[in-house]
Amino acid sequence: MPRKGSRAASRQASVVPVRRWFQFLESQSAQGIALPVTVLFALLVRWCVGLHGYSGQGTPPLYGDYEAQRHWMEITTHLPASQWYSYDLQYWGLDYPPLTAFQSWLCGAVAAHIDPSWIALNESRGIESHTSKQFMRATAIVLEFIVYVPAVVLFFRSRHVQMSWVARQVSIFSVLLQPCLILIDHGHFQYNSVMLGFLVWTVHFAAQESYMAMAIAFCCSFMFKQMGLYYAPAVFAFLLAKCFQRGHGVLLFVKLGTAVVATIGIMLAPWIGSLAQLQQILVRVFPVARGLYEDKVANVWCAVNVAIKLRSLLDAQSLVRLSTCATALAFIPSCIHLFYMIRQTRPAQSTANAIRLFKYCLLNTSLAFFLFSFQVHEKSILVPLAPALLLIDEEEWAVNWFVQVALFSLYPLLFVDGLQIPYWVLAVLWAFLRSCPACPADTHTPYCVLVLQWMSTLVMLALHVAHAFIPPPASLPDIYVVLNVVYCCAMFVAFLAYFNYRQFTRLRSQPSLKKKKD
Questions:
Q1: Helix, strand, coil shares, percent, the chain, to 5
Q2: Start-to-end CA span in the chain (Å)
Q3: What does residue 293 show for φ and ψ, rounded to 5 degrees?
Q4: Residue 477: which residues within 8 A CB-CB, separation 6 or more?
Q5: Can you tell me the distance from the alpha carbon of 397 to that of 450, in angstroms, rounded to the nearest whole number?
Q6: Rounded CA separation 122/478 (Å)
Q7: Which DSSP string do the residues of 361-392 spell out, in sequence order?
Q8: Is the peptide bond before 446 cis (omega within 30 degrees of 0)?
Q9: What is the value of pTM for the model shown?
């Protein structure tokens, strides 16, 4: 690893193209156009990806995630809230928390004003008109630019984020052009950016020491998508440590509890008078009956299934216990470390270091959930990617590599959706603009890491080539998907170990997180 004293110099020597672009703007005193160009380019990329296929396109009778999102607009617009979580569950029954339902209702109301046929109850199922697709694509972009984009920009512009102007702009550009989120939300089609945007707002409010707003933003994250709960242990550890850290900690604890209960209560208000309806929401949001995992996802349970058929050996209740224990063992050390380090810090000491540890803990906790928890989807890799990208300036090579592997893990899903062209375009764009293998003159990244990342890239390319040109044997039709799962799972476990190591050692030598003696 390069010496700490040479870090700034080595970063200046980096030839990563995206950094050179912003260095050029700075040298020309053109900083004012940096953010508008970044945002407009991000918008253009999203719209171009949206011109391609999506989940379930032209595949009746159920279609895919695109139809699910459109159908939820249909039922929330035409039916009372009491029926949202129980209406025709065999055809894309609503299975996300209430904030998603409210978002569907709002988008549905707009759709009804423009063209009611897009969401006509029962009659609009499977509609794929050009105008309806344009509307759906537009909703994903508008919601992202309302929730996610401002959060990212404000976070990296915060005074608590200790970066140069160039580093701030590079980070904003990188987060907004991260290919995995773009391909899933604007290709495959979902609204993950809303949940992840609330997560970024959570971290931003933590940096501003606005803990009530932080708690509310986090509630919005998991009340939009239940995967937001992957962050819950880290958020709880951070806020609990802040309560112990302060002289009026009990008052802060009561305020936080009130904010959480009130936020959740407001979102559950339409169903609060019926225990049966609340239970139905719980069953739909946490579908234990679906099994340990769905499809082929690059987590431990799916990878282990290659050799040990856990779903045949254990019943559903035992699998829930096993996954719960494994997940807890994976995230508890990170949360205890975060709690201890913040607890030992006086409130007046460095907020930046506390937020840095918080970002590591969010990443480690959510990655632990992805690898070990019950009922994980392949798209859930977006959850640990979000806090990882907030560390992109500090963990440049690791986050670049993490994004590459995460993108590769999504390929089987994107292949089914017919998104090979945008997949390759965005993969090459990321590799060229950000990743170390594209920059042989990079003096910042350790040589051994460059070699390992090149080897990793070659493995992924080899699997792509084999998938394209070598038909799988009849007895193993899913061999390439399984190899993808096993490889990516091994890499994610390695990333989990690395980021935990970095959390525990990153600030060891910095006195600002050590309690000073009176």
A1: 75, 0, 25
A2: 36
A3: -160, 165
A4: none
A5: 9
A6: 35
A7: HHHHHHHHHHHHSSSB-GGGGHHHHHHHHTTT
A8: no
A9: 0.92
Quote the CA–CA distance of 256 and 258 in Å, as a whole number. 5
Residue 292: what pLDDT?
77
Reduced to 3 states, what is the DSSP secondary structure of residue 121?
A: coil
Residue type, 439: C
Distance (Å, whole) CA 223 – CA 263: 9
Task: Give the integer Cα–Cα distance in Å for 199 and 405.
Answer: 22
Radius of gyration in angstroms for the set of CA atoms belonging to the chain, rounded to a whole number? 23
Contacts of residue 36, defined as CB under 8 A and 6 or more positions apart, other chains included, come to: none
CA neighbor of 507 nearest in space, from 310, 396, 361: 361
Residue whose structure tokens are 């595949």 = 59
Q: How far is residue 190's CA from residue 182's CA, in Å, rounded to a whole number?
A: 10
In total, the chain counts a number of residues equal to 518
- Measured between alpha carbons, how far is 18 from 175 in angstroms, rounded to an integer? 12
Q: Enumerate residue ranges in the chain where pLDDT < 50.
A: 1-13, 438, 440-441, 509, 511-518
Cα–Cα dist 85/277, whole Å = 8
Distance (Å, whole) CA 243 – CA 237: 10
What pLDDT shows up at residue 290?
Answer: 76
Bridge partner residues of 376 (DSSP): 293
Orientation angle between helical segments 98-114 and 211-224, nearest 10 degrees: 70
Tokens of 279: 């239970």
- For 322, the enclosing helix (H) or strand (E) is helix 316-343
Q: Are 207 and 351 in contact (CB under 8 A)?
A: yes
Rounded to 10 degrees, the C-alpha dihedral 7/12/15/16 comes to: 70
pLDDT attached to residue 440: 46
pLDDT number for residue 469: 95
So what's the pLDDT on residue 444? 64
**Residue 470 CA neighbour count, 13 Å, CB half:** 12
Nearest to 333 by CA among 355, 364, 290: 364
Q: Which two tokens stand for residue 105?
A: 């209702």
Residues ≥6 apart with Cβ < 8 Å to 67: 55, 56, 92, 125, 126
pLDDT at 312: 83
Token couple for 169: 């702009």
Under a CB-based contact definition with an 8 Å cutoff, are residues 182 and 341 in contact?
no
Residue 182: name the closest of 32, 375, 49, 336 by CA.
Answer: 49
The upper half-sphere exposure of residue 197, i.e. CA atoms within 13 Å in the direction of its Cβ, equals: 21
* Alpha-carbon span 96 to 424, nearest angstrom: 31
